[in-house]
Amino acid sequence: MAELTLILGGARSGKTAHALAACPAPHCYIATAQALDGEMAERIAAHKAERGESWGLAEAPLDLVGALRREAAEGRSLLVDCLTLWLSNLMHEGRDVATETEALIAAVQEVPGRVVLVSNEVGLGLVPMEKLSRDFRDAQGRLNQRVAAAADHVRFIAAGLPLVLKGET
Question: Who contacts 132 (Cβ-Cβ below 8 Å, separation ≥6)?
Answer without folding.
Answer: none
